[in-house]
Amino acid sequence: MKLSRRFEGRVALITGGGSGLGRATAIRLAREGAAVGVASRNLEKTQSLGKLF
Fold this sequence. Notes:
By secondary structure, the protein is α+β, with helices and mostly antiparallel strands.
């Protein structure tokens, strides 16, 4: 599936981004061009998300 770059030049802050829906949202927004900041209570999960990009 080819993703658009519709969020290019935008910034998103995702809370609860270490797992579940927040993580999936952060990944999708980043793939569509957004600069994504993620907040989570679990540092290890948040850092593992950062390693994807």
